[in-house]
């Protein structure tokens, strides 16, 4: 794979800094143009992207078109729909004490943002954050993952063709390039990848107090209650576990359920897989492979053939592992010691939701947590007793689709979040701006020394905040405007009616 | 000073983790009770707090009562007013494509939060974040600064008396204690202090991917335009520079203005200081001293006697430094190399706002940036051409007072923000929760393999987000209803008039 030379990296930073200082990225028109170009790129080049990912690890075209290109296009549109609103100064209103001050929040770009992508959704995880970075007005250095070399190379080519190279650049390479970038002139780091590397990134960022967003992973548990709709549950889990050959950060990692449910579930999952990929997934063009030899060996080692009840076949030449189910798995098995990131589905037996909650809480907080049940109260109990980046009830992975919902981890699964406005906020600094009127000097001068007991007491009561005496929630201006108008109309109709004797009184 | 034994720290973590796991802090009524107790503490004990701080570094009572205790009480009141709204699950509405998903954001506590306080406003910067941490449902360890030992000790005594010791604890000590705490069972670190130590904290937090909020500092510039109201400008800067003897993270650090303005404003500042502290601030009970001998020596070394035009007196026995003005300062002078954190006011001559902007942008981003001018567009231009944690126009420091504005730094001046809802958010995890209905299975199953181009095309269309065809800003439902009602009234009135032949049609 062609790599960017380490020596050229300082020049990249110099160019970007010059562009940023010139104010290029601050222009709203420039940002919108770039987003439109990014949309165009992920539209016109989608087949080219798909074949690069297929060349990298036998990724089915449909998955790249839908999960990468389609989602990036949606993110561009969502941002184009809202960017005027987001980039605007946001006025803040406050209690009477501060009503005299004109105050607002002014969103500002950080400067140069470094986006380090991952290989599993190579376009999505590099270009979706890019949408937010551009929308917020930053210059960007993209560092796609070298583990998907064709995808990285095509990303570099297309970004140079479609986007403004004076403000957006791609650096190709591996650890050396990443380390050089981390020491460079950057103001923000957005990283997608493993927890262990995420910690190293944060450590490096601490040298210059660079803010970071870390989108990592973990073992995302699935609790299936006995009252779940087994047919639908099985299909959805089967889908979530095997798209991208299980190499999805929010893939369902392992299942917790009772033996009864397990015996009903397994045939349904098997049925689903067979309908997806036929009996012979190695021949299916809809089935992905493991990204490389190293990960193939890693995942293969997690399979305990004594516990396999379905699947288990592997082919080292193609880095192929078929969809596999293991049962009677316990917390000490190898497959439970790390995020699987592969098409192995372990089932751990628990008798009820309390045991499931205990099992989940004994482990690091995951990126996602799933519950399948027809009882909303049970779902709520589990949600309230656990913590995870996000949760979906009765489906998997889909909670990351709506652009208005934040997507991120907690604890070891990550820091920060993005998608939609959260992306804009992730790459902006919200600067408070207050205008202090000069006519208020009489009042303000009370703060000046020399201090006396009387002055102190007077200032204490002047600046005191008060409890809401009427516990009405904040209903907003338009509610009150509507209520006032409706009351006025109703009053007029009624009094008119009384005057004209319309009502039978 | 009494220090917590290092061996005890482990037990503190055990106790707090047990309390957190038992759900004590999740209870909304517990949180409200604690915040009410915190309010009581900063009300009933305010004089005790003030005298401890007066013992520590001659801090005038007024400053402790108004800036520390008063602000903490206001933060408590604001939180009690709003907490019901903050902890509620926040429903999110979206584009049509995702309308069928029941989705909301569920705020969760992080677990055990470590709050490391600073010495300059010891109660405020230790207890104000505590309000947010409790409101968000966390257990908390407070580590007040050992540089203000009496304040730290009284805080420990009072927190034990007023708050729930099973969930809120204080650790007294120095750097060793901080290191042990950082290696402990924590889920969040909130640090107020210097940038240098902030970076060390972030590095330590990276070991376990612990999210951090760092409230640091920098050299806060003040640009005074020639059209500023000199008298008011002088009084406000004089106040901001001398309260707490300049040991305020938001204090105006240095001034940029033309020689003309300097000649007009320096006498005004001197006049203001005389009014505040008389001709001999040494004797004034309203004037604070430097925190300790080490900082006294540090600040004293920054004074270049050749450039002093007012003040310059020091007294090492009392760690006293008089309010001092230096002029003709350049960026190579010692005083421009570090945050002053003392009562020295350097003047740097610039000819216009362009030079000022260039000067400010050549340096690290500061915690605050101030502009004094009667031309709003000039202020806007400076704001749009620079970046800082926050900005105030025509005053200093006051932008942190309104609870609706976030308070935090950017770049080397800090990471993250707090105050009001921002405090709640900084100690919470915003967990996305989505409920996927079963009845959508016929549509949803279109995502299942085997893939073919027809289905892929269909899915691309189904999941596509559209550009707003009508460039309307987002109106909420009540503004829509108001508009509809108003239109209905208008139309009905017009039709009535037409019926009555009042207007010739």
TrEMBL record, chain A:
Organism annotation: Rotaria socialis
| GO annotation, biological process | aldehyde metabolic process
Database matches in Pfam families: Aldedh (PF00171)
Instruction: Tell me if Oxidoreductase is a UniProt keyword of this record.
Output: yes
Give the family per the record. Belongs to the aldehyde dehydrogenase family.
User: What parts of the sequence cross the membrane?
Assistant: 477-495
Q: What is this protein's record name?
A: Aldehyde dehydrogenase
- Pinpoint the Aldehyde dehydrogenase domain residues: 17-433
A GO cellular component entry from the record: cytoplasm
> Example GO molecular function term?
aldehyde dehydrogenase (NAD+) activity
Q: What positions does UniProt annotate as the active site of this protein?
A: 215, 249
Query: Which keywords, in A-to-Z order, does the entry hold?
Result: Membrane, NAD, Oxidoreductase, Transmembrane, Transmembrane helix
TrEMBL record, chain B:
Where is the chain membrane-spanning? Answer: 478-495
Q: Which InterPro entries match?
A: Ald_DH/histidinol_DH, Ald_DH_C, Ald_DH_CS_CYS, Ald_DH_CS_GLU, Ald_DH_N, Aldehyde_DH_dom, Aldehyde_DH_NAD(P)
Question: What keywords were assigned to this record?
Answer: Membrane, NAD, Oxidoreductase, Transmembrane, Transmembrane helix
Q: Does Lipoprotein count among this protein's keywords?
A: no
Domain Aldehyde dehydrogenase span(s) in chain numbering:
7-433
GO MF, one annotated term: aldehyde dehydrogenase (NAD+) activity
Tell me if Ribonucleoprotein is a UniProt keyword of this record.
Answer: no
Gene3D superfamilies, A to Z: Aldehyde Dehydrogenase, Chain A, domain 1, Aldehyde Dehydrogenase, Chain A, domain 2
- Which terms under GO biological process does the entry name? aldehyde metabolic process
Q: Which residues form a coiled coil?
A: none
Cross-referenced PANTHER family, in alphabetical order? ALDEHYDE DEHYDROGENASE (PTHR43570), ALDEHYDE DEHYDROGENASE TYPE III, ISOFORM Q (PTHR43570:SF16)
Q: Give the similarity note.
A: Belongs to the aldehyde dehydrogenase family.
Protein name per the record: Aldehyde dehydrogenase
């Amino acid at each position: 794979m062609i790599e960017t030379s380490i020596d050229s990296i300082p020049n990249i930073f110099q160019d970007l800094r010059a562009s940023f200082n010139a104010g290029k990225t601050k222009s709203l028109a420039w940002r919108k143009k770039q987003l439109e170009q990014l949309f165009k790129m992920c539209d016109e080049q989608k087949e080219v992207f798909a074949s690069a990912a297929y060349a990298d690890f036998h990724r089915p075209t449909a998955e790249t078109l839908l999960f990468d290109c389609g989602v990036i296009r949606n993110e561009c549109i969502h941002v184009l729909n809202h960017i005027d609103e987001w980039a605007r100064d946001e006025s803040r209103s406050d209690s009477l004490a501060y009503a005299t001050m004109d105050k607002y929040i002014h969103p500002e770009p950080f400067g140069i943002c470094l986006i380090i992508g991952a290989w599993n959704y190579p376009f999505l995880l590099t270009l979706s954050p890019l949408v937010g970075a551009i929308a917020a007005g930053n210059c960007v250095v993209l560092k796609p993952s070298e583990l998907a070399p064709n995808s990285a190379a095509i990303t570099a080519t297309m970004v140079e063709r479609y986007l403004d190279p004076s403000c957006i650049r791609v650096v190709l390479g591996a650890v050396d390039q990443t380390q050089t970038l981390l020491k460079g002139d950057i103001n923000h780091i957005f990283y997608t990848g493993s927890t262990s590397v995420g910690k190293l990134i944060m450590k490096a960022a601490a040298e210059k107090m660079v803010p970071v967003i870390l989108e990592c992973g973990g073992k995302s548990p699935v609790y299936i209650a006995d009252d779940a709709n087994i047919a639908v549950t099985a299909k959805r889990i089967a889908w979530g576990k095997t798209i991208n050959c299980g190499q999805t950060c929010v893939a369902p990692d392992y299942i917790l359920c009772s033996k009864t449910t397990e015996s009903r579930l397994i045939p349904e999952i098997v049925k689903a897989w067979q309908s997806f990929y036929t009996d012979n997934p190695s021949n299916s063009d809809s089935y992905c492979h493991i990204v490389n030899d190293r990960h193939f060996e890693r995942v293969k080692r997690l399979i305990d053939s004594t516990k396999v009840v379905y699947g288990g076949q592997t082919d080292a030449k193609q880095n192929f592992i078929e969809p596999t189910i293991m049962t009677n798995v316990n917390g000490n098995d190898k497959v439970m010691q790390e995020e699987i990131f592969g098409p192995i589905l372990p089932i751990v037996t628990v008798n009820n939701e309390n045991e499931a909650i205990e099992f989940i809480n004994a482990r690091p907080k995951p990126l996602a947590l799933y519950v399948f049940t027809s009882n909303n109260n049970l779902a709520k109990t589990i949600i309230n007793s656990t913590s995870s980046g996000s949760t979906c009830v009765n489906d998997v992975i889909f909670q990351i689709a709506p652009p208005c919902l934040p997507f991120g981890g907690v604890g070891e699964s990550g820091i920060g979040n993005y998608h939609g406005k959260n992306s804009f906020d992730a790459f902006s600094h919200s600067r408070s701006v207050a205008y202090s009127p000069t006519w208020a000097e009489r009042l303000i001068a009370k703060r000046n020394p020399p201090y006396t007991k009387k002055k102190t007491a007077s200032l204490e009561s002047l600046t005191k905040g008060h409890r809401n005496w009427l516990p009405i929630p904040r209903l907003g201006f338009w509610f009150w405007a509507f209520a006032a108008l409706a009351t006025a109309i109703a009053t007029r109709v009624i009094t008119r009616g009384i005057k004209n004797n319309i009502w039978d009184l | 000073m009494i220090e917590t034994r290092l061996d005890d720290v482990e037990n503190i973590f055990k106790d707090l983790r047990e309390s957190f796991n038992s759900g004590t802090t999740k209870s909304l009524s517990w949180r409200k009770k604690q915040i009410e107790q915190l309010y009581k503490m900063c009300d009933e004990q305010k004089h005790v707090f003030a005298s401890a701080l007066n013992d520590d570094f001659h801090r005038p009572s007024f400053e402790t009562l108004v800036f520390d205790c008063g602000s903490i009480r206001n933060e408590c009141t604001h939180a009690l007013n709003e907490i019901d709204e903050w902890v509620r699950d926040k429903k999110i509405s979206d584009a049509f494509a995702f309308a069928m998903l029941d989705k909301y954001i569920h705020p969760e506590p992080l677990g055990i939060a470590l709050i490391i306080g600073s010495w300059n406003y010891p109660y405020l910067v230790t207890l104000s974040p505590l309000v947010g941490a409790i409101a968000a449902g966390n257990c908390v360890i407070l580590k007040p600064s050992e540089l203000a030992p009496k304040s730290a000790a009284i805080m420990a005594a009072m927190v034990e008396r007023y708050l729930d010791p099973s969930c809120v604890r204080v650790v007294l000590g120095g750097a060793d204690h901080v290191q042990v705490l950082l290696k402990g069972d924590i889920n969040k670190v909130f640090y107020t202090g210097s940038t240098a130590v902030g970076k060390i904290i972030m590095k330590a937090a990276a070991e376990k991917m612990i999210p951090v909020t760092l409230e640091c500092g920098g050299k806060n510039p003040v640009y005074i335009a020639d059209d500023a109201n000199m008298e008011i400008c002088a009084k406000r800067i004089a106040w901001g520079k001398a309260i707490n003897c300049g040991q305020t993270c938001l204090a105006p650090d240095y001034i940029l203005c033309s020689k003309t303005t300097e000649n007009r404003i320096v006498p005004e500042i001197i006049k203001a200081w005389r009014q505040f502290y008389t001709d001999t601030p040494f004797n004034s009970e309203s004037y604070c001293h430097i925190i300790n001998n080490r900082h006294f020596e540090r600040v004293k070394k920054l004074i270049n006697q050749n450039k002093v035009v007012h003040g310059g007196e020091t007294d090492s026995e009392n760690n006293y430094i008089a309010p001092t003005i230096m002029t003709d300062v350049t960026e190579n002078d010692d005083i421009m190399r570090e945050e002053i954190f003392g009562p020295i006011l350097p003047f740097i001559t610039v000819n216009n706002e362009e030079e000022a902007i260039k000067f400010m942008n050549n340096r690290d981003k500061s915690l605050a940036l101030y502009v004094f001018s009667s031309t709003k567009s000039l202020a806007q231009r400076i704001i749009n051409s620079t970046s800082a944690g926050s900005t105030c126009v025509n005053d200093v420091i006051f932008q942190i007072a309104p609870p609706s504005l976030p308070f935090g730094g950017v770049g080397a001046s800090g990471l993250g923000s707090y105050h009001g809802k921002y405090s709640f958010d900084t100690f919470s995890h915003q967990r996305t929760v989505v409920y996927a209905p079963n009845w959508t299975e016929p549509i949803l199953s279109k995502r299942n393999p085997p893939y073919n181009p027809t289905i892929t095309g269909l899915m691309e269309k189904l999941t596509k987000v559209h550009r707003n065809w009508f460039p309307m800003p987002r109106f909420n439902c009540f503004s829509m209803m108001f508009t509809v009602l108003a239109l209905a009234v208008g139309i009905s009135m017009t039709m009535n008039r037409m019926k009555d032949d009042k207007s010739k049609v």
